Amino acid sequence: MIEEIAARFPYWMCAALIAVGLFGMIQKRSLVKKLIGMNILQSAIILFFVAGGLREGATLPILLEQGAGNADAADYVNPLPHVLMLTAIVVNVAITGVALAFLVRIHREFGSLDEESLIEQVRQ
């Protein structure tokens, strides 16, 4: 049983990070803490996809020799999850930058980043 848990350690860590990120997004009242929770959640999902794209004993999908036509696809790591996660990282950085700009503007306008006080100020 311990061997099975250890073999899937990256997935357990991703699940723990997803739980921490969801907790931060749902339970915290500060918008900055919600943004940090969202970044943890996004990073956990990226790590999950990268861990899923790895294979033990596989190599990079680069053929250095001309005429190496007998290569088996099972011998290589699938590069697609890694490429897609590079795009996800760029989107993550852009979303974080825009969210931080919104948080600065909200703080200047309302003087607080607490969710309850913002809702109370908007209702008045």
Please render the helix and strand layout as text.
Elements: H1 2-7, H2 9-27, H3 31-52, H4 80-110, H5 115-123
Helix pairs in contact: 2-3, 3-4
Share in helix: over 70%
Largest sheet composition: none
Main structural class: mainly alpha
* Alpha plus pi helix count: 5
- From the coordinates shown, what is the CATH architecture? Orthogonal Bundle
Classify the oligomer.
single chain
Kindly, what is the distance between the CA atoms of the first and last residues, rounded to a whole number of angstroms?
58 Å
Question: pLDDT under 50 segments (min length 5)?
Answer: none
H and E string? HHHHH
What's the Cα radius of gyration? 21 Å
Question: What is the class in the CATH system?
Answer: Mainly Alpha
At the fold tier of CATH, the topology name is Helix Hairpins
Quick one: how many beta strands? 0
Write down the overall mean pLDDT.
89
| Content of β-strand | under 5%
The total number of structural domains is 1
Q: Name the shape in a single word.
A: elongated
What's a concise summary of this model?
By secondary structure, this protein is mainly α. It has five helices and no strands.
